[in-house]
């Protein structure tokens, strides 16, 4: 069974769990006002998350990427005195119970500024802090290790081999709460499918195969030749992949608004014997998912 999902924002509702504030806004407030503002934003995000999850269930969508800004300023020094985890424990547990009850898979994709193979100690410190925040959210919800944190390898820094080795070294020092959730995705410029697969096999962590990225950055490999190895990195967990269509020939690496049906049919035909979750990365989010599903249904392609 192939299940489809989308990232962060529903086009069907304005009530998405990505409400936020800015440092500039918070700096104008007293400490008490600042806490009130942060609490209000997070409470709104919880309300919106529950509404959005209910909408997803109505649409039979069981894969969803939680926005990184769900907890406002979670890793910023301006909110260092705010114990959001304890204050909102009931809300986390309520959301987690709903997610588990309905078989929803919640995942996340920490920001592009989180780079585990960075040679800069400050960047590395901020990266670990960001990963820890994302992992803590899923831990507070009581979600299993199918709720993964997706990251890229990072920068090449003039030497790919050294950069891959540094990723392994820094991964080894991560706390277990992050290690059990971190998965690695091939990117569209630097680290190919084979680079990432070999890294994941060395670390015994799952690989997220991104089809679009593979078409952008490869060395002529046929991804189907590597499919059994990619799936094997997931062990007992459900494999997760990413799919998007290029915006245009000129802007090939950019994501299109919708998914090109013919491209997806060719991709998914090779996965018919497997249970795989496919995150669609397109501008029209859930609308694109529903449009794709309608096209697939018309062609009798079994997806969820």
Automatic annotation (TrEMBL):
Keyword Lyase assigned: no
Any one Gene Ontology molecular-function term assigned to this protein's record: endonuclease activity
GO biological process: nucleotide-excision repair; response to UV
Presence of the UniProt keyword DNA damage in the record: yes
One Pfam family hit: UvdE
Alphabetical UniProt keywords: DNA damage, DNA excision, DNA repair, Endonuclease, Hydrolase, Nuclease
Top-level taxonomic group: Bacteria
PANTHER family: UV-DAMAGE ENDONUCLEASE
Protein name (Swiss-Prot/TrEMBL): UV DNA damage endonuclease
